[in-house]
């Protein structure tokens, strides 16, 4: 059992992968054994808020709760501009760190963005890894040190993530699937890409890898 992680969907943006790509990706991941889903922020582009994009997101959510045993939504900076309504089956990350267990046993640690920009330093609020969980996964919608984004969003150092004791970090906000570290894995999901986390191998890799 594994967890599918998607981020920076930016529904409505012409260069974004779009609703149909999302549907196909979720169905493919479920067939490959993913039992959990995490949206790591920025589902609707703040410049493309409309009945159409709201409807597309609602459709994706309805499919998600049918395909996956557990679904988590982690707000990004674009989501601060959008009035999102999610199914009751979704867990929505607040603007303070939470830890929750997924069906595969993975302990997920995350915090949601509360504003755009969001310059808060949350590094001292990070939960300790659970020694009893088969794996600890961090999810953060972040600009890190700003090297790849001028939009400040929960800035944090790579050293802080590497020293957290978590087995992997999946990041949202930057649209390229950049790998920041391999031990432990720290990487941005990227727009038009999908990551899968396996608690047995501790690998965080692209869905089709």
UniProtKB/TrEMBL annotation:
<protein>
    <submittedName>
        <fullName>Metallophosphoesterase</fullName>
    </submittedName>
</protein>
<dbReference type="GO" id="GO:0016787">
    <property type="term" value="F:hydrolase activity"/>
</dbReference>
<dbReference type="Pfam" id="PF00149">
    <property type="entry name" value="Metallophos"/>
</dbReference>
<feature type="domain" description="Calcineurin-like phosphoesterase">
    <location>
        <begin position="1"/>
        <end position="177"/>
    </location>
</feature>
<dbReference type="InterPro" id="IPR004843">
    <property type="entry name" value="Calcineurin-like_PHP"/>
</dbReference>
<dbReference type="InterPro" id="IPR050535">
    <property type="entry name" value="DNA_Repair-Maintenance_Comp"/>
</dbReference>
<feature type="region of interest" description="Disordered">
    <location>
        <begin position="112"/>
        <end position="133"/>
    </location>
</feature>
<dbReference type="InterPro" id="IPR029052">
    <property type="entry name" value="Metallo-depent_PP-like"/>
</dbReference>
């Amino acid at each position: 059992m594994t967890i599918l992680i998607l981020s920076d969907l930016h529904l409505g943006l012409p260069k974004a992968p779009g609703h149909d790509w999302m549907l196909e990706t979720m169905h493919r991941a479920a067939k490959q054994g993913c039992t959990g889903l995490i949206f790591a922020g920025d589902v609707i582009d703040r410049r493309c808020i409309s009945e159409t994009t709201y409807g597309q997101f609602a459709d994706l959510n309805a499919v998600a709760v049918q395909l996956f045993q557990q679904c988590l939504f982690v707000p990004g900076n674009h989501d601060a501009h959008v009035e999102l309504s999610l199914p009751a089956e979704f867990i929505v990350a607040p603007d303070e760190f939470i830890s929750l267990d997924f069906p595969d046993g993975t302990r997920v640690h995350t915090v949601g963005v509360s504003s755009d920009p969001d310059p808060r330093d949350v590094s001292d609020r990070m939960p300790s890894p659970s020694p009893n969980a088969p794996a600890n996964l961090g999810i953060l919608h972040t600009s890190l040190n700003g090297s790849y984004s001028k939009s400040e969003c929960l800035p944090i150092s790579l050293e802080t993530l590497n020293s957290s004791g978590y087995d992997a970090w999946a990041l949202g906000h930057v649209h390229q699937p950049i790998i920041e570290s391999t031990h432990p894995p720290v990487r941005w999901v990227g727009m038009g890409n999908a990551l899968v986390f396996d608690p047995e191998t501790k690998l965080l890799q692209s869905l089709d890898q």
